[in-house]
Amino acid sequence: MVWPHKSGFGIKLVRMGCKNRPYYQIGAMPSRRRTGLLPDEVIGSLDPVPNERNEIVAAVDLSRLSYWMGRGARLSVGMQTLLGLAGWTPVPPHVYIKAKQEHSTTTTTQPQESDGDGGDNGEEKIEIESILPKRLPF
Length: 138
What we know:
Layout: E1 9-17, E2 22-30, E3 41-47, E4 57-60, H1 62-70, E5 74-75, H2 77-86, H3 93-109, H4 121-131
Parallel strand pairs: 1-5
Antiparallel strand pairs: 1-2, 2-3, 3-4
Helix pairs in contact: 3-4
């Protein structure tokens, strides 16, 4: 089989499932393929609905992902975000920007309660919460 040019492939999230219960497959497919079609190779899956432990479950075959990235496949914005939050690639800047915006809206609407002990425990908690988004941005 003849493969297209290196930049012709992308790693994307392909939405599956029902209207109220989304499910994503992580697949390698040509960049010019219409959305909604099945990928050429499924290399993982993502369940964006949190489970009973409030975890978002994602599974990725990292060897196949590195193979496709080595062939020049581009990551979609959703995949950049997912792999950045997982620690496999650098976190994209738009995740930090959105987290800062969400943090500023929550601090203006909800005043912080002081414990009265004068400790800096609240500041450390705010810094960690401002980095990670409350939900996935895709």
